[in-house]
Amino acid sequence: MLILGLILLLLGFFLEISILWTIGIILLVVGAILYVLGATGRAVGGRKVWY
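That's the DUF6131 family protein sequence above. Prediction below.
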């Protein structure tokens, strides 16, 4: 999710498409939250690991 968010963020920036920019930011934030929660060992949504 982090990589997809970064790709969309960069595409939105270089192609000047604001919806890709917005979706990229949202995916980066959600991916970072899930990554931090998973790294601390806390189960998120009943799962310990999110791929």
